[in-house]
Amino acid sequence: MPPEHDPLGCKPEAQTVERLSREIPDVVNALVSSCQRQGCFSHVSPVPIPSRQAVIRILEQGRRILFPGYFSHERIDQVNLPYHLGREVTELFQELARQITWAVRHDCYRYDQECSLCEEQGHEKALAFIKALPRLRELLASDVRAAHEGDPASGSLDEIIFSYPGLMAVAVYRMAHELYELKVPLLPRIMTEHAHALTGIDIHPGAEIGESFFIDHGTGVVIGQTAVLGHRVRIYQGVTLGALSLPRDATETLRSQKRHPTIEDEVTIYAGATILGGRTVVGARSVIGGNVWLTESVPPDTKVFIKTPELVYVGRK
Fold it and tell me: Dihedrals φ, ψ of 236, to 5°?
């Protein structure tokens, strides 16, 4: 049986709790003071900042538009398709314009820039993105076909669209890249890092990737900002298309330079390969084997692989 309640015993406890609670305002005051010091990051401003949650909703709505019927909450047929797409595209335009406006306005305020007509920019760039959707659909259709042709384990095109992390990451990248090309701040990187968190595939929105791109399995893939990939490129899990290590004081001067490799058409890169450097070019139709470390160019139609290591077998006897 639990002990009987002792009202007299509770009084000292209540006094202790009240005394400890009185220390909270001092902590709040310290936090407020820290927000006013340089070196501590906060966004305390009358100017709104883009909403990460809204950007994720934009991605989800974009996928519903690019793949009608796959990710929608209701059934879509030929009769209601115009209504469905009309509603989705209108909502996407309005929310995207709002988030772009806030991103541009935030930059103006943060970096003390001249007025850049942020609301006008927001609507113009949102409309430019909307107009690019038919082209993005064609690109993603080529990516779906590349996955089906390149993976014997794929049961159907539907299976790829519904479940392949590589296709999801590429779909997000293609939307983010469009906004990156429109010079929209913040939003493209929020998008690709969201896909990175979900899939383990890290594609910078600034990378240039051609049609019929296939990432098989995908976990651990990294594609850097200035990487250029041609058409019909196939890569496997753990592949890095990265930059060579830079001195700390050289970071700012190299931001605008090409730091990541160029992969030409119809190249296959197997699991665990690392290809580094802005001057590194892998020629068309080449094959880069698993776990290869490459920092120099490769001519077209070349196979690069590591010599088979000597294996040691230890039995019980």
Answer: -115, 180
Largest CA distance in the chain: 87
Q: Is the pLDDT of residue 3 over 60?
A: no
Q: Residue 250 has what pLDDT? A: 67
> Domain containing 241: what range?
220-308
284 part of a folded domain: yes
Residue among 235, 96, 69, 231 at smallest CA distance from 157: 69
d(CA 317, CA 156) in angstroms, rounded, equals 49
Are 59 and 175 found together in one domain?
yes
CA angle, 222 then 225 then 226, to 5°: 115
Q: 194 and 142 share a domain?
A: yes
How far apart are alpha carbons 19 and 11 in whole angstroms?
Answer: 12
Nearest 10 degrees: CA dihedral of 176, 48, 194, 234?
A: 10
The number of domains in the chain is: 2
Query: What digits encode the pLDDT tens for the residues 173-206?
Result: 999 999 999 999 999 999 999 999 999 999 999 9
38 lies in some domain:
no
Q: What is the CATH number of the domain that holds 228?
A: 2.160.10.10
pTM of the predicted structure, to 2 decimals: 0.89
| β-strands 222-223, 262-263 pairing | unpaired
- 162-171 pLDDT tens trace: 999 999 999 9
Give yes or no for a contact between 239 and 224, defined as CB atoms under 8 angstroms apart. Answer: no
Q: Is 79 helix (H, G, I), strand (E, B) or coil?
A: coil
Distance CA 185, CA 50 (A): 10
